[in-house]
Amino acid sequence: MANLPFFWQAIVVALTIAGLMYLLFLGIMIYFAEEPVHHEVMWDETLEEGQAPVPAWWFWSGISAAIFALLYMTFYPSFGNYRGLFNNALLSESYVESQAKVDHDYYQELEKLEQSDIVTLQFNEDAMKLARNTFAQSCATCHADDAKGQTNFPDLTDQAWIWGGTPEQITHSIAEGRKAVMPAWGVVLGEEGVDNVAKYVKSIADNTYKEKEHTAGKAKYLQMCAGCHTPTMQGNPIFGAPNLGDSAWIYGGDLASIKQSIAKGRSGVMPAHKDRLTELQIKLLVAWLSRNN
What we know:
The chain is mostly helical. It has twelve helices and four strands; from the N terminus they run αββααααααβααααβα. The strands form two sheets. It has a two-stranded antiparallel sheet with strand order 1-2. The radius of gyration is 37 Å and the shape is elongated.
């Protein structure tokens, strides 16, 4: 039942009255049509062109339709904003009851989800469906529809959480956002130093480390990089320093990309979503994203 502005209500009323008047006029024209006029045979010596009145049942059908329309508009909402005689007794009560039931079920389900822990939510198919919808609307642009990320945006389906993969850490990342800065070491290390460190890092990630070949790079790494990424390259979620010993590269894991990261530095920003998403939406996302942890 639309609550139409006066202009559109007037349009609806005018169209309705015009339709009924036309229907009545059509019925009268049919009923009082002239007697048939006979003409000469025109085709095939048997077909005669003439003017025969429309059957009387057309007239009564039109009148019946008009009467039905008037009765319908009297008892049901169909004439502008007029709600009809049955409105309060039937439709309004039914609508209010139906809306109240929907609201009750909706808020009851919300309360149930809000009180559930992360593990319980992960086994709730409806909750995970809501989480996927929220992810598609708010996160997929950067992290891709399947959450596997893309260049410059991390894969969220593996266990390589740069800022930590506990529910609390993921919640913080979504709600408050993150800002990571990898300083540029090109000037400090020089071209040869960048090359040595890049080859050493890649050798660890690819498990191709050779003592004799990568000693120089290892020494520079321990001197310049271990403070954030740790001596074993396992990374440090406190600084947002990623694990360099796995294959989860954000900016590319080929030698050229690693050298560029070292020489030019990197910066990444995850915007805060606490003002865009509700606490329940963030909680559902955390449950969905951490289901593989």
